[in-house]
Design brief:
With 260 residues, the protein is an alpha/beta fold. The chain is built from 12 helices and 5 strands. Helix 3 links the parallel strand 3 and strand 4. The chain is globular and about 60 Å long. The N and C termini lie far apart (69 Å). The protein binds iron/sulfur cluster (2 copies).
C-alpha cells in the first residue's frame, strides 16, 4: 500500500505587514512535523520554489486595498479547496481600514510627495467581503499555537478548537490584577477575542483589542464603563478604532459614540 498523499499548503499575502506569515515560520520545530502531512507548495516568504495549484489549504494574510487585490483573491479562492484567513488585516481590514472612515485622498496627499502615482481603493476590506472564507483566525499577529491547531484540524477534517472567550478570562486564569478595576485604565479585554494569553494587562496596560471582537461582545456595556471612568465619547470612539476598527462590532461601537 502506497503512502497517503500529503496535502498541499499555499500562503498568500495581500495588504499587510507579514507578521502573521512570520508566525507560521516561527513554528520552527512544529513545521517539521507538519511537513510530514503537508507539502508547502506556495509560500513566497519562505521559498521562491513554488508548485502549481490547486491547493488543499490556503492561508491568506492581508486585506483588499487595490483593484488588483480584488481580482487576485478571486483567483486564490478558485485555486483553494479550503481558504483560511489569518490576522486582523485579512479578517477585519486591519489598521489600514481607518481609511474607511475618511477620504483616502486626504491620507495619500499627506503621506506621498506625488499622490497622483498612487492607485488604491477608497477602502480596506476583509477577505470575506470578496470571497467565501472557510475559517477566520484572529490576531495581530496571530498566535502560532492557534494556527497549528487550525491547520491540524483542517488536515483531519474536524472543527478547530480555538476558544472564543474574552481576554478577561485569560487575565483571571493567570491571576492578573484587573487594570480597569484596580487603576481605572480603559481596557478592551472584556470584548476582545482571547489568543494572546492576556499579555498587555500582565504588564499593567489596558488591552487595545488587537485580537478583534470576541464571539458576542457587549460593547454597549463596556462603553458605559468607559464613560464612568471619565472617558469622552471621542476618546471611546478612538479606542474602538484600532487594528480591528472595521470589524462590525467595533465599528458599530465607535460610530455610536461619534453620534452622541
Ligand atoms: S485587565 Fe482588562 S482584560 Fe484583564 S480582567 Fe481587567 S478588563 Fe479584563
Ligand atoms: S492588545 Fe489585547 S489582545 Fe492584543 S496582545 Fe494586548 S492584551 Fe492581547
Amino acid at each position: 500500500m502506497g503512502e497517503a498523499r500529503r496535502q498541499t499548503l499555499a500562503v498568500w499575502k495581500f495588504s499587510s505587514c507579514d507578521g502573521c506569515q512570520l508566525s507560521l515560520l516561527d513554528c520552527e520545530d512544529e513545521l517539521l512535523t507538519l511537513a510530514e502531512r503537508l507539502e508547502v507548495a506556495y509560500f513566497l516568504e519562505a521559498s521562491s520554489a513554488t508548485l502549481e495549484g490547486p491547493y488543499d489549504i490556503s492561508l491568506v494574510e492581508g486585506s483588499i486595498t487595490t483593484a488588483h487585490d480584488a481580482e487576485r483573491i478571486r483567483e486564490v479562492r478558485r485555486l483553494s479547496r479550503v481558504l483560511i484567513t489569518i490576522g486582523a488585516c485579512a479578517t477585519a481590514g486591519g489598521i489600514q481600514a481607518l481609511r474607511n472612515f475618511a477620504d483616502v485622498e486626504d491620507f495619500t496627499a499627506i503621506v506621498y510627495a506625488s499622490p497622483d502615482y498612487i492607485s488604491t481603493l477608497g477602502t480596506s476590506t476583509p477577505i470575506s467581503s470578496h470571497v467565501p472564507v472557510d475559517y477566520e483566525l484572529n490576531g495581530c499577529p496571530i498566535n502560532k499555537r492557534q494556527l497549528l491547531e487550525v491547520i491540524a484540524a483542517h488536515l483531519i477534517g474536524r472543527r478547530p478548537r480555538v476558544r472564543a472567550h474574552s481576554v478577561c478570562v485569560d487575565c483571571k486564569r493567570r491571576g492578573t490584577v484587573c487594570v480597569m478595576v484596580a487603576h481605572g485604565t480603559p481596557c478592551l479585554g472584556p470584548v476582545t477575542h482571547a489568543g494572546c494569553g492576556a499579555l498587555c494587562p500582565a504588564y499593567d496596560r489596558g488591552c487595545y483589542g488587537c485580537y478583534g471582537p470576541m464571539e458576542s461582545p457587549n460593547t454597549t456595556s463596556l462603553t458605559s464603563q468607559f464613560r464612568i471612568l471619565g472617558q469622552s465619547d471621542q476618546a471611546i470612539s478612538r479606542v474602538f478604532r484600532g487594528f480591528s476598527a472595521w470589524a462590525w462590532q467595533f465599528r458599530k461601537a465607535s460610530e455610536e459614540c461619534e453620534r452622541t
